[in-house]
Design brief:
The protein is of the alpha/beta class. It has two domains: about 5-190, Rossmann fold (3-Layer(aba) Sandwich), CATH 3.40.50; about 225-385, Rossmann fold, CATH 3.40.50.2000. It contains 19 helices and 13 strands. The protein has helices at about 10-15, 20-25, 40-45, 65-70, 85-90, 95-100, 110-120, 140-150, 155-165, 175, 225, 240-245, 245-260, 295-300, 315-320, 335-345, 360-370, 370-390, 395-405, and strands spanning about 5, 30-35, 50-55, 105-110, 125-130, 185, 205, 230-235, 265-270, 290, 305-310, 325-330, 350. The strands form two sheets. The protein has a seven-stranded parallel sheet, sandwiched between helices. Helix 7 links the parallel strand 4 and strand 5. Helix 2 (about 20-25) crosses helix 19 (about 395-405) and helix 13 (about 245-260) packs across helix 17 (about 360-370). The longest helix has 20 residues, at about 370-390. It starts with a strand and ends with a helix. The relative contact order is 0.12.
Length: about 400
């Protein structure tokens, strides 16, 4: 049996997909533990895994929410204060690597600098864990070069000096990141959701949807009583409501107003608005709308006939897994590409959230609800997702790597 360490970044949405793989490995007798920022400790331990907080001085408790608010206009855009390049260059991983004596490291695709340190300083070839689908032609190596170009010059130079002092040999930035083309990469999504598959290199493996199947945290609602004989519609912008407060507030009010239409009187909307808002924020909420700050998305999707979402990959996968057609209103990051995939496979429809009108929103809702094609396609993709979730091919790949180590 092996000792497997997951090193994960700031965001809980990037850790969630790892739990399916981690639990499968634990069930097979392997020891599994996590390294991440302190904010993720309770989250991970609740899943039954050991946890070691890292970079505590850099990322104290409460860091994640402050990060989201600081980068409110461009979520995920790191400033020099959001990186730990300097800490890595000062040898922050030295003691951990020596004490853990792990057989395999599975590392978030967003921790590219960390992976280079593992490879060049400690002789470790990490397994890359990617919780989303990349656009054609984009690789971890390309992302890493882009990260170096954006980092402050003094940090990049400090890190390069650190690698050279560790015995690394490279002459160009392209040479420096070349090892990413050889690392095994696990993509937490079925290959069938890709638009084109001819660009996928052989070191990349799609391991299934890796979705949650247990209820999460949030307000408890007696959904069967709320909806009565009505069909359930679910709408949420997830954690993006913090970063796009005014855009999301406008959308939420439009969604509430649309539900007043007579054609939707047989439907009930559960509207999850996040911690920034509550029901008192919005005007004239009809009786077929329930506004909550947070709810277990899994529980709602088990009932829903339609989900309206910002298009985060986690939510899209959960919608497919539970057979719920979608309307995707992307905000940023990979969400526009995810919206294209949803439309390409006819699993729902999408539109820009900026400038969205109530009439367009109403039309999208009615089109999806009345589409036989979308209903059939979501059912077919649901079957694929549920089969691959049950088979968990990622555990087989990891065990093969352990045997080779």
């Amino acid at each position: 049996m092996g000792k497997i360490v997951f090193i994960m970044d700031v965001e809980e949405g990037h850790i969630l997909p790892t739990f399916t793989l981690a639990q499968s490995l634990k069930d097979r007798g392997h020891e599994v533990l996590y390294l991440s920022i302190a904010d993720n400790e309770v989250f991970v331990r609740k899943q039954g895994f050991d946890f070691y907080p890292i970079f505590l001085d850099k990322y104290p408790k409460g860091y994640r929410e402050a990060y989201k608010r600081r980068n409110a206009n461009i979520p995920g855009t790191a400033t020099s204060n959001d990186t730990h390049i300097w800490e890595i260059a000062e040898g922050a991983y030295d003691e951990l690597i020596a004490s853990l004596k792990a057989d395999l490291f599975i590392v978030s695709t967003f921790l590219r600098i960390d992976m280079l340190a593992l490879y060049y300083r400690y002789g470790i070839s990490p397994v890359v864990f990617t919780p989303y689908l990349r656009d054609a032609g984009v690789t971890t190596a390309i992302d890493c070069m882009d990260e170096f170009m954006k980092a402050p010059g003094e940090e990049s130079m400090k890190f390069i000096e650190f690698l050279l002092s560790s015995g690394a040999v490279f002459s160009t930035l392209k040479d420096l990141v070349q090892p990413f083309d050889t690392f095994c990469e696990l993509v937490a999504c079925p290959r069938e959701l890709e638009i084109a598959t001819d660009h996928i290199p052989p070191n990349i493996h799609h391991i299934g949807p890796s979705v949650r199947t247990e209820s999460g945290q949030g307000d408890h609602l007696p959904l069967d009583k709320i909806k009565g004989n009505r069909k359930l519609i679910y709408a949420s912008m997830g954690s993006q409501a913090i970063s796009y407060k005014y855009v999301c507030r406008s959308f939420f009010q439009k969604m509430i107003d649309v539900m007043k239409d007579i054609e939707l009187s047989d439907y009930h909307l559960v509207l999850s608005v996040g911690p920034e808002f509550d029901e008192m924020t919005f005007s004239l909420v009809p009786e077929n709308v329930t506004v909550v700050r947070w709810i277990s998305q899994i529980e709602v999707l088990k009932y829903a006939v339609l989900a309206i979402t910002h298009g985060g990959m986690g939510t899209i996968k959960e919608c497919i897994y539970y057979g719920v057609p979608m309307i995707v209103l992307p905000l940023s990051r990979d969400q526009p590409s995810n919206a294209v995939r949803v439309q390409h496979h006819r699993l729902g429809l999408s539109a820009p959230i900026h400038g969205l009108t109530g009439s367009l929103l109403y039309s999208l809702i009615m089109d999806v609800l009345n589409s036989v094609e979308i209903g059939e396609n979501i059912h077919k993709m649901k079957t694929i997702f549920q089969y691959k979730q049950a088979s968990c091919p990622g555990a087989d790949i990891v065990e093969h790597l352990l045997m080779k180590a």
